Amino acid sequence: MTKDLARYRQLESRLWMTRWRHEGQESAEEDAILDEMEDAWMNLIEEDRALLRLEGPRCWPMDPSSLPPGLAGTLYSSAPTAWAYEGFHSPAEAILSADAA
Amino acid sequence: MMESDPQTAAELLHEWFGSILHLADEALFGIVPEGPHRDAVVLDVLKRNARILSEGELDNEGKLYSPLCYFLAAACRTLRISLGAGHWRAAVDNLVHLQQQTAGARAESARVGLEIGSPAALFKQEFDEAIHQAAIAGGVSYLNRENRQVALGLAINWGMRLLLAYAVDCRGSSTGTGLKDLGWVANVVGPILHSPSRAQ
User: What does pTM read for this prediction?
Assistant: First the structure.
């Protein structure tokens, strides 16, 4: 992730939290963040912009389908914990043999 | 009726499985020359028969015999494992012990309202779980590749035992002279299970 995109992500989080605190109503705090985001947007490279355009709006806490930025990206990314059959060094060891006894 | 000596039975089963492997190599896997295509055929045979066995239920007619043999042949080939007489001896001994244990536990399990099932049913449960974990019969396995191979090894282990127990349960589907089919397997294993010296 580029430094500029990381900054933009931070601003997204702040915007989400601000809107959440104000229950979705406009606020001066929100306006200030939006100005900063506009600034940050101008510094983004085209690939990052394309990525953000693809994601669509993500900073609307009052929309039940909207997750906080950052959480949305990680929610489904944690893989289930792998488990293993313990004590076997090879598949051949899993087949019991009277010769090995 | 054959001898009730487990070592002789193991050697007979080892020889019999050798002919199953030979047949599978010639007629089943041999539709293409050695190489990636043959490996793909082996994998297809493995997965197809794993699916049939996983979806199939135990019966008394021997319907699972062919898929079980093809599965074992393909699994051994996939893992590049050769089964020796020692493996078959261990399987025979395991079946004998399990049959004694389940016979002893049957009355007790009935008292608490639980059905523990026949040795074939118990082996099939383990077999089904192993092929599920090996991710060869559909579904998702949480094992990594290395451990999925161990699961396939376990499937061979349980599959051998299932085959022997199943053959005994299917007795009566019988065999003709000179045939070495499921009835023959039952004739090899059956006398050991019913031997008075082993029923103690």
Answer: 0.70
